[in-house]
Amino acid sequence: MSNFNFFDWVRDGVKNSVLHGVNDAVNAMGMPPEEASKDKILNYLQRNKDDDTSAVRRISSAAGTKKLGRSLSDIAVKDAS
Domain count of the chain? Predict the structure, then answer.
């Protein structure tokens, strides 16, 4: 069974929704007279597609797990004092 990560799934869904929204807006408004901007945007998106997801995975794996708040052992030590 593959390892399913809910937050990666949500992040990818939001990213795709934003890209589709931008595409729809460009189609509705039309492109500016300078066509080079379209090529620049496409090159940027294609170049950074794989880099973004690998960077997020590197950051999340480097951060490891963080403790939010106190653990039961921290509470027990404080109560014992």
Answer: 1
